[in-house]
Structures are given as structure tokens and as C-alpha cells.
Amino acid sequence: MKRTILLAEDDDLMREFITDYFAKERWDVLEAENGREAMDLFEQNAVDLVVLDLMMPEMDGWTVCRRIREKSAVPVIIITARAEDDDQILGYELGADEYVTKPLSPRVLVARAAALMRRTEGTVGREGELLVYGELTIDRQAHAAAVAGQTLQLSPKEFELLAFLAKHEGKVLARDYILDAVWGYEYDGDPRTVDTHIKKLRAKLGSEGKLIATVIRSGYKFERVT
Q1: pTM value?
Q2: Do 57 and 18 sit in the same domain of this protein?
Q3: What are the Cα distances from residue 150, in Å, to 34, 204, 206?
Q4: Tens place of pLDDT for every residue, the chain, 226 residues?
Q5: In what order do the strands lie in the sheet with 144-147?
Q6: Domain boundary at 123, 138, 166, which?
Q7: Do 83 and 139 reside in the same domain of the chain?
Q8: 186: domain range?
Q9: Among 105, 123, 141, which residue terminates a domain?
Q10: Do residue 135 and residue 89 come from a single domain?
Q11: Are 130 and 170 within 8 A, CB to CB?
């Protein structure tokens, strides 16, 4: 299946290099050299994935990511030369699904993009189950969740995390285990990423946020509250 990627990168050589690799894997690539152009392209085209550099002129990547998340749950991969944990956590707080630091391998970037798309397009939900917990419903096949009939605006990573927790209802899951399962074994970021996503999930779940319990010094547990 042909997919379309929006690539926002102000370095011409790097953008061309990354574009070539995605094109070889039969992706259509929309190129933006600054944040404002990236938002214009995003609003004018249907895209399956956004690869977003943080340090861009006119509008930085933080702002672009936030604005995209206000409109869409499309998967977002951030690429940056800044490897600090706090920067990565901020990226995830803004709704990014992956975080890749420079110098990067375009081949690895394409592979991670493909893996993210496989998860987004329903690997988690092949069972086709509709799970119900109080007012929360999780539709694995549609890759969607709702509370009291209102669809939740979840990023792909947030949905994957919610579905994973629900799949292991009643079990205490350590942060490292969640990282390996949801972010992948190759992820080498801060375990606080899990805490950040849990916090955002609870906020979006509203009254049903109580389904995700914190187990002190152990991790998290998804359980029905009686």
C-alpha cells in the first residue's frame, strides 16, 4: 500500500537524503523546509506519517507538533540533534510517537516509520474485539476509544498504550516492560516517557482515568473499579 509522508527538515542535503530512502520504499514524500510550510502542506494534503525536525525557521518543530495534534492523530516522528531526556519527554508530551536523534541512519528511520505504521494500522487490534470498561470502550479493530460515546483524540502511541494495558487487565506491568512492548526493544529513552503518556491518557479518559492504577515502586495496572 502506497503511503504519503510529510518530511519537514530545513537542511536541504539531509532532506534530500531522507527523501531518497523513503522514495525507494515506495513512499510519496511531501517536503517542507520550514515549519510554516510544513503546516500548509499538512492542511492541504492527506498524509499517513509526519517526520519532523525540531529546529526549523519560521515555526519550530515543537509548535508544528502541537498544532498537528490539535487537528489529527496522525503518527509523528521527531528528529533532532538534541538528545536530552527533557527534550524527548517534551516531545512525547506534545504528542510525538517516536523520537530519533541525529546523526541518524535513513535506513533505520525508514524501518522505524514502517514499524510505527504497522502498529498504527491495526497490528494491536487484529482480534477485532470491542472492550468495555464502565463508560470506556476500546475498539481494537477500528483503533479507536470512546468515553460515554465521545470519541477520544488519542495519538497512535496513546492508543497502543491503552490497548496494551487493557489487554493485560489486572496485571502489574513494570515501566521497562511497557517500554519494551509499546516502544520496542530498540528504544533507549527515559522510562519517564511511560509516566508522561499515562498522565496524558488519564486526563483524556476523564472519569474513566481511574481504570489505570499506579502501583508504587512497581508500575501500573489496568483494573475495573467496583
Answers
A1: 0.58
A2: yes
A3: 35, 11, 11
A4: 678 999 999 999 999 999 999 999 889 999 999 999 999 999 999 898 999 998 899 999 889 998 888 888 788 998 877 666 666 676 677 778 888 888 888 888 888 888 788 766 643 333 446 788 888 998 877 788 999 889 999 988 899 899 999 888 888 999 888 988 888 755 656 668 889 999 999 999 999 999 999 999 889 999 987 6
A5: 130-133, 136-139, 144-147, 150-151
A6: 123
A7: no
A8: 130-222
A9: 123
A10: no
A11: no
